[in-house]
Design goal:
Length: about 475
C-alpha cells in the first residue's frame, strides 16, 4: 500500500495531564524528639513515669527511622503495661499486632488490648474490634467487633468512624454494604473534627457517590481538613480554588494550598505547582513551577516525569534536549505510564534522543495500546500501515485506528476515513465520509476538506444518514470493547 496515503499521525497531545486523585503524603513525623527531650524522658521513664515511658517508646518504635530501636520500644511498653497503664497496655498490644511484625503475636495483642479496653481506652477498643472482625488472635465475632468500634466512636476516636464507614461502604467482614450507613459514620466523624473523615466525606460530595453532588459542601469539608494539616485535603482545596469548584476561582490561593500539600511530600500537588503555562491557572513563577515538576518527577510521580519530558521535547519551557526527553519518557514508560509509552515509541520510531529502532517502537506502542490509550493504538495502527517494525497489514492497521477512533481520537478518525477512501478495496465512500466528518467535528483541521471531497460521491439520502450518525455518535469508554 502506498505509505504516503496514510494520514500523518500526530505526536501525542502536549497538554499536561490532570491528576484525578492525590495520594496522601506523610506529614512530618509526630513522634520525633530532640536530644534534650530524649534525655529528659529517659530520666523520667527510668523513675517509673508511665507517660514518659509511652512517649519515649513511641519515639523508638515509630519515630524517625534513623532513631528507631525496637528493643528499647518493647522494654518501655512492657514496663508501662505491666504497671497497669492503659496506654502502655495498648502500645504493647500494637507492637504485637502490627508495629513489629518480626515478633508479631495476635493472641498477645488481643490480650493486652483487652486490658486497655477494660480501662476505657478508645484506641484499644478500635484495634480489638478489628481483631474480632478479622478473627485474628480471637474467635471471629462480627457483632462484638462492631460494638467495640462503636464504643470507640462514642469517645470521638476518628479512626473508628473511618473503619466503620469503610466496612459499610465495601461490605467487609460479612456486613451488608450500605453507602448511606457509611456516609452517616463519616458525617459523625467529620462533625467530631476528624480530618480524614472530613476529607473522605468531601470526596463523596465532590463525586456525587451516595449523595447528590455538592461542591460547596465538599469545599467546606476539604477546607476544614486542610486547616488541620491533611495533605490530601490541601491538594483538593488547591484544586477547587484553581477550577472554581464550590468557591470563587483564585489562582493565588490555589498555589498556596498546593504548596502546603507539596511541602508535605504530596507529589500530586507538586505536579499541579509544576503546570507551567496552565490555562486554568498560569504559573506565577515558571522557575518555581519547574522546580516542583522536577521534585515530583524525582519522587516518582509519573505525570510529572511525562510533563518534564514534554518540556525537553518541545524546547519552549526548557532548552530542547531530546535525549533528556527520552530518558524521562522511559522512566515513566517502564512504570506503566501509557502516554509515556506511546511517546517513547515515537522517539524510537524517529530517532529522537535514542537510536532508531522500529521493533522497540512497536513494543512500546503495544504496551500503551493495551491500556486503551488512543494515541498508542493509533501509533500501532500507523506501524502496521507503513510496515514499521512489523509486516505491513492493512486490516490490522484499520482495526487499531478504529479502536482509537472509537475512543474519541480525532487523528485516528481521520486515518480511518482515509483508509476507507484509499486503502480498502473496493473503497467505501460512506464510511470514509462518516469518519472524516467525525474527525472534522472533533477539530482535526485536515479532515474538513477531505470530507467535502468525499461528500460529492454520495447521494443526498446517504449524506443525511451519515450526518444523523455523526450527530448521535458518542465515544466509548476505555476498557470497554
Amino acid at each position: 500500500m502506498p505509505a504516503g496515503r496514510i494520514g500523518t499521525l500526530l505526536v501525542a497531545t502536549a497538554l499536561l495531564i490532570g491528576v484525578p486523585r492525590p495520594a496522601s503524603a506523610a506529614p512530618a513525623n509526630k513522634f520525633a524528639l530532640t536530644a534534650d527531650e530524649v534525655a529528659d524522658l529517659t530520666l523520667r521513664a527510668d523513675s517509673g513515669d508511665a507517660a514518659a515511658q509511652n512517649r519515649l517508646g513511641a519515639y523508638y518504635s515509630e519515630g524517625p527511622k534513623a532513631t528507631r530501636d525496637m528493643a528499647k520500644a518493647w522494654d518501655l511498653a512492657r514496663r508501662a503495661a505491666e504497671a497497669g497503664d492503659a496506654e502502655g497496655q495498648r502500645r504493647l498490644g500494637r507492637l504485637y499486632d502490627f508495629i513489629d511484625p518480626a515478633h508479631g503475636d495476635s493472641k498477645e495483642a488481643a490480650r493486652w488490648y483487652a486490658l486497655a479496653v477494660a480501662q476505657g481506652d478508645a484506641v484499644a477498643e478500635n484495634n480489638l474490634g478489628m481483631l474480632y472482625l478479622r478473627g485474628d488472635g480471637v474467635a471471629r465475632d462480627r457483632e462484638r467487633g462492631l460494638a467495640l468500634l462503636k464504643r470507640a466512636t462514642a469517645q470521638g476516636y476518628g479512626l473508628a468512624h473511618r473503619n466503620l464507614a469503610e466496612i459499610y461502604e465495601d461490605g467487609r467482614h460479612g456486613v451488608a454494604a450500605s453507602i448511606p450507613t457509611a456516609i452517616a459514620w463519616l458525617e459523625k466523624g467529620a462533625a467530631a473534627g476528624d480530618a480524614d473523615c472530613q476529607t473522605m466525606l468531601a470526596v463523596h460530595f465532590h463525586r456525587g457517590t451516595g449523595v447528590p453532588p455538592d461542591h460547596v459542601r465538599a469545599f467546606a469539608l476539604f477546607l476544614k481538613a486542610a486547616r488541620q494539616g491533611d495533605s490530601a485535603a490541601q491538594f483538593y482545596v488547591g484544586r477547587f480554588y484553581r477550577d472554581g469548584l464550590g468557591t470563587a476561582r483564585d489562582c493565588a490561593r490555589a498555589r498556596r494550598w498546593f504548596a502546603q500539600s507539596a511541602a508535605q511530600g504530596d507529589t500530586a500537588a507538586m505536579v499541579n505547582l509544576g503546570r507551567v503555562g496552565s490555562q486554568s491557572c498560569p504559573a506565577a513563577d515558571p522557575e518555581e513551577s519547574l522546580r516542583w515538576t522536577r521534585a515530583a518527577a524525582d519522587a516518582g510521580e509519573l505525570d510529572a516525569a511525562w510533563n518534564l519530558a514534554l518540556y525537553y521535547s518541545q524546547g519552549e519551557i526548557l532548552p530542547q534536549d531530546l535525549k533528556e526527553a527520552a530518558r524521562w519518557y522511559r522512566f515513566a514508560a517502564e512504570r506503566g505510564h501509557a502516554p509515556s509509552q506511546s511517546a517513547l515509541g515515537l522517539a524510537c520510531l524517529n530517532g529522537h534522543g535514542v537510536e532508531v529502532d522500529h521493533a522497540e517502537a512497536v513494543k512500546w506502542f503495544r504496551l500503551a495500546a493495551a491500556q486503551d490509550y488512543s494515541p498508542g493504538l493509533g501509533n500501532l495502527g500507523l506501524a502496521y500501515a507503513r510496515g514499521y517494525g512489523v509486516p505491513r497489514d492493512g486490516r490490522e492497521a484499520l482495526r487499531c485506528f478504529r479502536l482509537a477512533a472509537e475512543l474519541g481520537d480525532e487523528v485516528a478518525m481521520y486515518n480511518v476515513g482515509i483508509f476507507y477512501r484509499e486503502e480498502v478495496a473496493p473503497p467505501d465512500p460512506i464510511e470514509s465520509f462518516y469518519w472524516l466528518s467525525l474527525a472534522d467535528r472533533y477539530g482535526f483541521d485536515a479532515a474538513g476538506a477531505k470530507a467535502d471531497e468525499t461528500r460529492r460521491q454520495l447521494t443526498p439520502a446517504q449524506i443525511a444518514d451519515v450526518e444523523r450518525r455523526v450527530a448521535a455518535w458518542q465515544p466509548k469508554k476505555a476498557g470497554v470493547r
